[in-house]
């Protein structure tokens, strides 16, 4: 369903460590945990982990809501603004008693989970006398004032929290990457300080040599350009480049056949370009930097093609992009050096 796609398919290919349960608890909530996504060859494609600390709760609420015929029909017809604005939440009053009972139970379980995590963290800090109810205020994906009933307020808060957190996800990843690069350079400089002058010159020379080697790679096609897509068409799809057809290309790479190219499906299109620059066997090629470059490519294409900014590319948006001058005559694309 489009609702499920909008809220749950925001996970990206990134070499990131999973957070432990306690690390996902406020006051210092880190909502950036990511798991590598592997294609699932089955009729039903399971939604990936969003990286949110309330990911399981979000999925369970969606699953339960989709069992209600009335709500399911509303979800199918709703646009992104109806979902994000909270107007859809009012439809909760019309769902069946059975569904409401299940949602109440899910909320009680989630509140219980949060209380357990708060207690575990406080115990680890040897902090006593804290009001758990007050600490629950830090969680903005549910109404803590009513821990037993799932109401329209809860659905509204869940949607708004997930939308906001996921929209800030790329920014968080960029910030984490900057920290990674700064730490890598810091460690290199600290290592140089431990060497005598001769060894230090050798290391600096080696570093410059690796940098030049990394920069010496075949031309990288501009992401989303005709040349880039035709290369995928020929080398990945095994088709004649002279027969390139944007509509057929879209359908080939809409892996789950939902009518959209989501962020994962877009990122998969850049693998051939990235392989020109990065090789895991080469000492000078950093795979963390490769995934940051994949993200940069996907963001660029989304900014150019995704006109309604719902983080999904429709066939109509895709075909319109292929009519632009930038598609046929793009600017050069420079990959960052080490």
UniProtKB/TrEMBL annotation:
Localization per record: Cytoplasm; Golgi apparatus; Membrane; Secreted
Molecular function terms, GO-annotated: calcium ion binding; DNA binding; guanyl-nucleotide exchange factor activity
Location, primary (coarse class): cytoplasm
Region (Disordered) location: 195-225
Domain EF-hand: 241-276, 293-328
Signal peptide per UniProt: 1-24
Family to which this protein belongs: Belongs to the nucleobindin family.
PANTHER family in the record: NUCLEOBINDIN (PTHR19237), NUCLEOBINDIN-2 (PTHR19237:SF22)
Name the record gives this protein: Nucleobindin 2
């Amino acid at each position: 369903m489009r609702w499920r796609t909008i809220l749950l398919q925001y996970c990206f290919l990134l070499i990131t460590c999973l957070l432990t349960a306690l690390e996902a608890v406020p006051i210092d909530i880190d909502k950036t945990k990511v798991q590598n996504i592997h294609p699932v060859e089955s009729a039903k494609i399971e939604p990936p982990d969003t990286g949110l600390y309330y990911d399981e709760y979000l999925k369970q609420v969606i699953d339960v809501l989709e069992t209600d015929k009335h709500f399911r029909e509303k979800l199918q017809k709703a646009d992104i603004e109806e979902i994000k604005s909270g107007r859809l939440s009012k439809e909760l009053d019309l769902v069946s008693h059975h569904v409401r009972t299940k949602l109440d139970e899910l909320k009680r379980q989630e509140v219980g989970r949060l209380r357990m995590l708060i207690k575990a963290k406080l115990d680890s800090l040897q902090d006593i006398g804290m009001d758990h109810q007050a600490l629950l205020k830090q969680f903005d994906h549910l109404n803590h004032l009513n821990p037993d009933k799932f109401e329209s307020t809860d659905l509204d808060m869940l949607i708004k929290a997930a939308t906001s957190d996921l929209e800030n996800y790329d920014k968080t990843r960029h910030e984490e990457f900057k920290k990674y690069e700064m730490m890598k350079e810091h460690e290199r400089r600290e290592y140089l300080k431990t060497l005598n002058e001769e060894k230090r010159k050798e290391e600096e020379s080696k570093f410059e040599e690796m940098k030049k080697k990394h920069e010496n790679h075949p031309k990288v096609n501009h992401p989303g350009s005709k040349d880039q897509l035709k290369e995928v068409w020929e080398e990945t799809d095994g088709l004649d480049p002279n027969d390139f057809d944007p509509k057929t290309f879209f359908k080939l790479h809409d892996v789950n056949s939902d009518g959209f190219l989501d962020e994962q499906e877009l990122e998969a299109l850049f693998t051939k370009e990235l392989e020109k620059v990065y090789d895991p066997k080469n000492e000078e090629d950093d795979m963390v930097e490769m995934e940051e470059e994949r993200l940069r490519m996907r963001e660029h294409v989304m900014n150019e093609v995704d006109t309604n900014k719902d983080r999904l590319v429709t066939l109509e948006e895709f075909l319109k992009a292929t009519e632009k001058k930038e598609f046929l005559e793009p600017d050069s694309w420079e990959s960052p050096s080490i």
